[in-house]
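tokens incoming
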């Protein structure tokens, strides 16, 4: 099996049909592939199974509860068969040529272990958090002070190296994913993609962006509230900095971030 396209569903079933349709329409000819839906919802994906019977390579792995992004993908990965695995959000749509471009990137350069497309929003703009430079306590503090949110640099042209790419659309080599231990399941949501890429780079593998590959992304459609989203983000950020930079650096970021935490979590509805 050449390719596994793996999607974790949680409160996103209304987007799954469009996502599956885009995969079916844009799967490269001659590529042996499977689609694996990992369902974190309590309700089974019976309607998807019934409505997509014509896709013989579609399988559903029922979890029955929300166990988190990374843990669910790890569970699905253990049931997958692809040489390459595309971790894909349900609120995405594959655009023409994207899968072919991503696969060709890994075929051409054996040292690239993880490659991502450009994620495009409804206005056709590149989403700022689809890739980026290494996240450190200093870079995080600087971003907050100067409120940096620019268009990603190098977002056009040839394939280029980066420090991390979004887990919303991430193609990985199976053997490398296994070697580095998959996603760290201590991250419930957020930063598991940044952490995975950092661990890959520490073992001298490359992480890259392929601008020729583009994927439309609705972004954040699994959340009931902005407060929940921010709370999960800050919790994962705390763990990421403790893990890679130690408790002192993590504590400093947490202290300087306190006004944002109060505004976005404690005072948010």
């Amino acid at each position: 099996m050449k390719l596994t396209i793996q999607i974790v569903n949680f409160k996103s079933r209304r987007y799954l049909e469009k996502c599956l349709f885009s995969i079916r329409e844009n799967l490269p000819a001659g590529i042996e592939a499977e689609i694996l839906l990992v369902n974190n919802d309590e309700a089974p994906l019976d309607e998807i199974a019934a409505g997509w019977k014509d896709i013989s390579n579609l399988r559903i792995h029922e979890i029955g509860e929300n166990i988190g992004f990374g843990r669910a993908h790890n569970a699905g990965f253990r049931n997958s068969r692809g040489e390459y695995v595309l971790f894909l959000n349900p609120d995405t749509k594959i655009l023409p040529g994207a899968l072919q471009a991503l696969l060709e990137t890994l075929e051409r350069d054996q040292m690239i272990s993880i490659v991502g497309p450009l994620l495009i929003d409804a206005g056709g703009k590149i989403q700022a958090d689809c890739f980026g430079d290494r996240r450190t306590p200093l870079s995080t503090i600087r971003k907050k002070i100067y409120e940096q949110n620019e268009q990603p640099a190098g977002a056009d042209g040839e394939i280029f190296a980066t420090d991390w790419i979004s887990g919303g659309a991430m193609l990985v080599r199976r053997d490398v994913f296994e070697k580095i231990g998959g996603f760290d399941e201590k991250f419930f949501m957020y930063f598991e993609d940044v952490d995975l890429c950092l661990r890959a780079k520490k073992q001298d593998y490359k992480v890259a962006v392929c601008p020729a590959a583009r994927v439309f992304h609705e972004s954040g459609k699994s959340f009931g509230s902005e407060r929940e989203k921010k709370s999960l983000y800050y919790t994962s950020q705390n763990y990421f900095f403790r893990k890679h930079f130690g408790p002192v650096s993590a504590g400093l970021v947490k202290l300087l971030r306190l006004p944002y935490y109060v505004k976005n979590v404690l005072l948010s509805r």
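note: The first helix runs from residue 13 to 26.
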